[in-house]
């Protein structure tokens, strides 16, 4: 089977390109259409091969006019010699068509999937490699001591280049990746929520929209992946631990200051992160105070850093702010009986507290620990008390077997163990899994010390509280703010 010889040389092609621009652009589409009809990877009979070669010859003629799409190497190929005419040769046209196909694929390279709006695609489908982006990296603070011995022995700068510490991080990579996945879900969800939250929205609708979005993006799977604790949406003088119970008709107002605090987890590795929403710009200094105080706490945190030193640095920044509300000036105060905390696996409060005022405990932070660095700025007394109807509950982490007399309490405990284990939950979550008429049984579990209630924490009525929070990881070589995003 003969092949068509191409007589057009590279130099002649180039000289004719200028006058054929319009024709070339039209031919490109025709070439792609013809190449699509070729079956290049399957064995072909004589008739099929002959038909394919006819198409390919047409493609190669067009390719000669569009030198941008086919290499000079192929264009300069010659017909087979007389000695080879007796056996079937791989047609130059088919080789050219393959080259064109590869070029077309390169030009139409599939772009990575993008998140939908509203977000509904699980983040695992957005990162094909399964590797999730790390958070903000900060180096451990250098004390800048003038004493050489102190710098060599007490500074954490050596960790950056230590091969031993790097190997420790490689061993912990699966855990790091899990918490980064949870953090990526948190970033995408809060980005969406910031777009839809408006005055007039029902608080129940806001929380359920947020939680359902988390469930989709994190691919909720029992205790392996899901929501880490109920969505806190505390308003104004309520600092923390408020979420609407079923039937609550609270509506978000223009002059409200809302703390939106929600968590995600993968295999019990929790990301605890919060921000404050205020529509009235007069509250901006209040929000800035807690945001910058949180950033200072993150900056001061590190391996072998005393918790009390972090608290002192936070308070100094927080109380340097003032806010004018309706003509009256208030100094922003750190709420002295609220704290950040260490985080364990399936344990939101793992034992260590990070104060936000000076004079706290002298316990030191340690390598490998996770911390929620959170600050609360208030225009009130700077002290909270328990008030209002309780919505948050959590099974005690270290509780052993405690005999229960009420069958209903036993049944409710089984539901809690199955769906939440030691992660926090709220009444709406019990409603969602099908529990009804459970208040007496829940009270029995609380009275027995199996479940701990967490009522809303409130400053004086009429005051305003803002909150910002990030989860940090004290890696062996550096400090990672895993929940950091473009927003805060």
TrEMBL record:
Residues 179-377 form the Peptidase M24 domain. One of its GO terms (cellular component) is cytoplasm. A divalent metal cation 1 binds at residues 261, 272, 469. Its cofactor is Mn(2+); Fe(2+); Co(2+); Zn(2+). Keywords: Aminopeptidase, Cytoplasm, Hydrolase, Metal-binding, Protease. Binds 2 divalent metal cations per subunit. Has a high-affinity and a low affinity metal-binding site. The true nature of the physiological cofactor is under debate. The enzyme is active with cobalt, zinc, manganese or divalent iron ions. Most likely, methionine aminopeptidases function as mononuclear Fe(2+)-metalloproteases under physiological conditions, and the catalytically relevant metal-binding site has been assigned to the histidine-containing high-affinity site. One of its GO terms (biological process) is proteolysis. Pfam families: Peptidase_M24. Substrate binds at residues 241, 349. Residues 1-30 are annotated as: Disordered. A divalent metal cation 2 binds at residues 272, 341, 374, 469. It is an enzyme of class 3 (hydrolase). The keyword Chloroplast does not apply. It is found in: Cytoplasm. Belongs to the peptidase M24A family. Methionine aminopeptidase eukaryotic type 2 subfamily. Cotranslationally removes the N-terminal methionine from nascent proteins. The N-terminal methionine is often cleaved when the second residue in the primary sequence is small and uncharged (Met-Ala-, Cys, Gly, Pro, Ser, Thr, or Val). Protects eukaryotic initiation factor EIF2S1 from translation-inhibiting phosphorylation by inhibitory kinases such as EIF2AK2/PKR and EIF2AK1/HCR. Plays a critical role in the regulation of protein synthesis. This is Methionine aminopeptidase 2. The lineage of its organism: Eukaryota, Viridiplantae, Streptophyta, Embryophyta, Tracheophyta.
